[in-house]
Amino acid sequence: MHIKLWGVRGSLPTPMSSSEYETILSRALTEARRLYQEDPSRTADQIFEAIPDPMKHVIGGETTCIGVNYRNTAILIDLGTGSRKAGEALAKRQDLKDIHILITHTHWDHIQGFPFFAPAMNPNMTLHFYSCVPDLHNRLIRQQHPDHHNIRFEELPCKTRFTTVKEGEPFQVDDLKISAQPLIHPGGSTSYRMDKGNQKFVFATDTEFYGPELSMLVRKYDEFFHKSDLLIIDAQYSLPEAEMKRGWGHTAMTIAVDCAMHWDIGRLGLTHHEPSHSDDTVRELFARAKEYLEANNPHQHRMELYLAREGDEYLL
Ligand SMILES: [Zn+2]
Ligand SMILES: [Zn+2]
């Protein structure tokens, strides 16, 4: 499985502001000058290479869309605004006739990119939708009502198929076994697990692990998440925000780390970043989550921790 993150921001698309960009650029130029003064024989490429990662890579402002390529099979999880670029990439694959789309839920940030999804304009393309939402088709029709968009869903040239999936009833895409698990989120959300042999990838966003019942929740979800090779999970908040926004359906970074340690996860990706957080704030929260993992990991847990950034890729 080749996994690519096309959108990692939560709730609302969040383009970087000019002032935030200026701050990062100014830091990069200062660092470049220091590197040059240290060794004037360095080329521009070598200086760029030596500049720290946060000055070169943004976290990204597109909302949730995850690409999974397995052999020649194309799968997407969610159609947030990141799906516009995912669609452009998929539209270039001349051989591609089917795309499988798993929808976690239909909050705007998980479907809003679909009206701009290029493969939907291809009459030779079939889009296979999977969701726990029984009326997903109607919800997508509503999203493209002429009051909101210039092309109706029913007028799209592509063919569409809808499958309602259920907890405890895995289904097959290519030879991947896919299972669904309801999460804790206002209006509901679904986690998807993909099994191939002994490899396991789980995507679980828009879920709230918090409160006095946390240890019970960790036990309840253990079977589904246990020993995932890669888990990408909602980690929108700081701990004080999670307390302030109880019932909003999202998890604090440190709690996500805590839960993942219990589930014996191999690699943990933290996603669905809060739109009001700057890149600096998200990176600060991530640094604290890393410290938390190191401080609370007396048994040298094998887990590797990743901050999900737009464009990041994982191989499984
Ligand atoms: Zn969301
Ligand atoms: Zn949501």
CATH topology descriptor of the largest domain: Metallo-beta-lactamase, Chain A
Write the element-wise H/E pattern from the N-terminal end onward.
EHHEEHEEHEEEEEHEHHEHEE
Mean pLDDT: 97
Instruction: Report the CATH superfamily of the largest domain.
Output: Ribonuclease Z/Hydroxyacylglutathione hydrolase-like
Number of helices: 8
> Percent helix among the residues?
25-40%
Q: What general outline do the C-alpha atoms trace?
A: globular
SS-based structural class? alpha/beta
Cα-atom radius of gyration:
20 Å
Ranges where pLDDT stays below 50 over 5 or more residues in a row are: none
CATH architecture of the largest domain: 4-Layer Sandwich
Give the CA-CA distance, first to last residue.
5 Å
Name of the level-1 CATH class of the largest domain: Alpha Beta
Beta-strand content estimate: 15-25%
Bound molecules: zinc ion
Give the biggest beta sheet. 7 strands, mixed
Strand order of the largest sheet: 6-5-4-3-2-1-14
**What is the count of structural domains?**
2
Q: In total, how many beta strands?
A: 14
